[in-house]
Amino acid sequence: MSPDLLMLIGKATLDTLRMVAIAGFIGALIGLPIGIFLATSGRGELFPAPNVNRAVGLIVNATRSTPFIILVVAIIPFTRLVTGTSIGTKAAIVPLTIATIPFFARLVEAAIRDVDRGLIEAARAMGATPMQIVFKVLLAEARPALTLALTMTIVSLIGYSAMVGAVGGGGLGDLGIRYGYQRFMPDVMLIVVIVLIVLVQLVQSAGDRLARRFDKRSRKT
Amino acid sequence: MTVSTSPIETGDAAVVFDGVSKRFAASGQSAAFTALNDVSLTVGRGSITGVIGRSGAGKSTLIRLVNGLEKPTAGKVLVDGVDVGALDEAALRELRRSVGMIFQHFNLLSSRTVFGNVALPLEIAGMDRRAIDERVRPLLDLVGLADKHGRYPAELSGGQKQRIGIARALATEPKLLLSDEATSALDPETTQSVLELLKRINAELGLTVLLITHEMEVVKAVTSDVAVIDKGEIVERGHTFDVFTHPKHETTRALLSGLPGSKLPEAVARDIRPAAAAGDRVVVRLTFFGAAAERPLISRLIQSIGAEVNIIAGTIDEIGSKPYGSLVVAYGADPETSGKADRFFAENGLTVEVLGYVA
Ligand SMILES: Nc1ncnc2c1ncn2[C@@H]1O[C@H](COP(=O)(O)OP(=O)(O)OP(=O)(O)O)[C@@H](O)[C@H]1O
Ligand SMILES: [Mg+2]
């Protein structure tokens, strides 16, 4: 394989990592509070606002049920507004972020709902404010589950980031399509797939290990 | 807040329930439900007061009214003279910091160490690290778990977890401790040791304890006063000793019948009959209190009736720190023997209940 091609693969990998990192970071940052809100704003919960809860839930569901590739196209005007362009790595980050937010928010919601109700009760009995309950009880207790949620989100982001390649988004997916498919270079396709698999494996096992470290619920031998 | 919160004088009562009702509104499938109906009850300062009742009687609802986790729909709950139902959220949080609570399932944070769990209420109250450290260590000593301070709850036994729960409840130095079935998930031996700890805390710190349970054993072991709750109403209350020795309500009797020693052994229960046949022996339950519990009754009984006496079942125990005994014995049902026995019982001030006859 030519050094040029290796350069290309290296650059594509970096592009993918950059897209995943930025979209993952911003998406998680916005998705986290939305997830917390979804989990705590039902009737009789910490921040009761059942109507807003339902509205947010609806938007989240709508975004999640839109096929990603349609989402990419549908928000092109918005993407252009934010980044000034509709193609390339920078432009791809916008739909990736938008897709990450509801995905992560739902996982966060589930993780937080999983925290034992008795702990909320105990914290209330100690005189904790709702905010203290969120930070000292819910987030602390959900940390292993949140770590796995983030891992899962990054893994799907890697997949999505390969998809934006199809619409000129750059990164490994783009490389695979342009060289592997259009120029019929199966070895490039193979390398792209292998790099993606390795990335996913690395993220997954790092996430698993971290989650296990955070999890104090069972006796360690 | 605008509502007047000047405390009402409640004398030596730490908690007063004054005509309290709690009705849960209908929601979705479930109809409205009256969990508590016109409950009046006083918890004496420095006492260990028990509330006992069957599952669903309204015990948890009752205790949750004390720290405002529930609001009464009628009546008042006064804690140190303050009407809990009238407090706003901020005032309520302030109150909760001065009332400790322990739970059936401990409710410890799995992500925090033993130390971290006990420190939590202090962090919530905004205490600084150094002060927290100084407060937590002696508490861990008090509950006998100083060596476990860096452990996680998953690494502790049930009894140890509840001790941590108790240390946590005491962290803010409350004057009142609420216990919602704190020993119900523990085995009998561990239950006793946790109850001993509660007793010690009550004596050493002068802490008032309001304890709810469905187990008479628990009431008997630690409380000085007890109320029996059934279907949301208090059906009987008084000093624990009196309620145990002279139960009036059918629910109280039913709850008492679960105590060891209150049931006849299987073989006797099967053969016992209500009327005497020739040559039968009569089975009686003797109940004796105070000094009588410490005298050698049986040997004197045998001496005075001059016939053999079978001991079928018996317990000598303490209720509310007073000695109490219950003994089931059988002896000849013939008029001469029974006559002598009756005289002996009368002379010694024993309560006698004829249970039936056996061959
Ligand atoms: N939030 C609620 N909404 C509706 N009904 C409730 C609510 N909380 C309790 N109840 C009902 O009130 C009754 C009393 O409940 P409570 O939890 O006080 O019983 P308990 O005596 O503590 O029982 P257990 O020994 O099983 O804990 C029950 O019938 C219960 O279903
Ligand atoms: Mg209960």
From TrEMBL, chain A:
InterPro entries: AA_ABC_Transporter_Permease, MetI-like, MetI-like_sf. It is found in: Cell membrane. The keyword Lipoprotein does not apply. The chain crosses the membrane at residues 20-40, 52-79, 91-108, 145-168, 188-207. It is a multi-pass membrane protein. GO terms for cellular component: plasma membrane. Keywords: Cell membrane, Membrane, Transmembrane, Transmembrane helix, Transport. GO terms for biological process: D-methionine transmembrane transport. Pfam families: BPD_transp_1. Gene3D superfamilies: MetI-like (1.10.3720.10). SUPFAM superfamilies: MetI-like. PANTHER family: ABC TRANSPORTER PERMEASE, D-METHIONINE TRANSPORT SYSTEM PERMEASE PROTEIN METI-RELATED. Belongs to the binding-protein-dependent transport system permease family. CysTW subfamily. This is D-methionine transport system permease protein MetI. It comes from Sinorhizobium americanum.
UniProtKB/TrEMBL annotation, chain B:
Keywords: Amino-acid transport, ATP-binding, Cell membrane, Membrane, Nucleotide-binding, Translocase, Transport. Transmembrane segments: none annotated. GO terms for molecular function: ATP binding; ATP hydrolysis activity. Residues 15-256 form the ABC transporter domain. GO terms for biological process: amino acid transport. InterPro entries: AAA+_ATPase (IPR003593), ABC_transporter-like_ATP-bd (IPR003439), ABC_transporter-like_CS (IPR017871), ACT-like_dom_sf (IPR045865), MetN_ABC (IPR041701), MetN_ABC_transporter-like (IPR050086), NIL_domain (IPR018449), P-loop_NTPase (IPR027417). SMART domains: AAA, NIL. One of its GO terms (cellular component) is plasma membrane. Belongs to the ABC transporter superfamily. Part of the ABC transporter FtsEX involved in cellular division. Important for assembly or stability of the septal ring. This is Cell division ATP-binding protein FtsE. It comes from Sinorhizobium americanum.
